[in-house]
Amino acid sequence: MIIKTRGIVLGYVKYGETSIICKIYTEENSIQSFIINGIRKSKSKNTALYQPLTILDLVIYYKENSGIQRIKEAKFDTIYNSLHTDIKKISVCYYMSEFLSKILKSSETHESQFNFIVNSLIAFDNIENQFSNFHIQFFIKLTKFYGIDILSSTQLSPSGSEDELLRFIDHCINKNYEVKYNSNNILRNKVLNLLTEYYSRHMDINIKLNSTVVLKEIFN
Fold first, then answer.
1. 38: CB partners within 8 A, 6+ apart
2. Among 21, 40, 160, 191, which is least packed by CB within 10 angstroms?
3. Which residues share a beta bridge with 25?
4. Residues of the chain with CATH 2.40.50.140
C-alpha cells in the first residue's frame, strides 16, 4: 500500500556500510522505522532530510505489522532557517527528539498532537534569540495530549519550592514561546529534572536521556 503523509524525524542509526534505519513520527501511522539504502554514500546529498526534527513530506510503501518500512519519495515539508544551523538550537533538537522517542506511542496518532509539534517547531525556528526556555515550555504544554496536563507550578514542583522556581514554571505554562523570561541554567536544570520525573511517573516509563548533559552544558 502506498501512503502519503507528513513525518517528523526522531533520529536514525547507521545500518551496513551505506544505509540508515530512521525513526519517523508520521501523521498517518504514528511512529515507523524506515530503512534508507545508500544514503551514506559519499555523493549522497540527502542526509540533511533526516536530521532530528526535520518535517518531511513522504510517500511510503506501507506494510501493516511490518517492523521496517520503505520510503518511495521524501522531501522537505518545511525548510528551517536556523534549527539546523544554530549550535544551541541543534542541541535542543537532539534533546527534544530523544525525549519524544521515549514518550510518543507507536500505536496512536492524533492529528492535534502532530500539528502541535509541527507548529511548535516552526515557532522555535522563528525565534531569533532568548530561546533557552523553549524545550521546557514545549514539554510542559505537551502534557495535555496525554491527559496529564500541568496547569499549575504546584503539580510539578515539590512542596516548599522557592518562589523563583514556581514563577518560572507558571510562566512556561501560561505564556507563548515568544514571551521572554530571564531564567538561568540552575533554574532550567531543576525544571528539566522535574519534567523527566513527571513524565516517567505518569507514563510508567523510565526516561534516561543521553543528550541531557550536552544540553545543560551548552546553555551554561
1. 18, 19, 44
2. 160
3. 8, 31
4. 2-76
> Homologous superfamily of 2-76 in CATH?
Nucleic acid-binding proteins (2.40.50.140)
pLDDT at 40 over 90: no
Rounded to an integer, what distance in angstroms lies between the CA atom of residue 61 and that of residue 59? 7
The CA angle 65-23-70, to the nearest 5 degrees, is 55
The better pLDDT of the pair 197, 43 is held by 197
Return the closest-CA partner of residue 97 out of 24, 174, 195, 11.
Answer: 11
The pLDDT of residue 47 is 81
Helix (H, G, I), strand (E, B) or coil at 24: strand
Q: Which of 147, 154, 160, 152 is nearest to 202 (CA)?
A: 147
Q: With contact defined as beta carbons under 8 Å apart, do 138 and 116 qualify?
A: no
CATH code linked to domain 87-218: 1.20.1440
Q: State how far the Cα of 179 lies from the Cα of 133, in Å rounded to an integer.
A: 10
Rounded to whole angstroms, the Cα distance separating 46 from 187 reads 39
DSSP H stretches of helix in the chain:
87-103, 111-126, 134-142, 153-156, 163-174, 185-203, 212-218
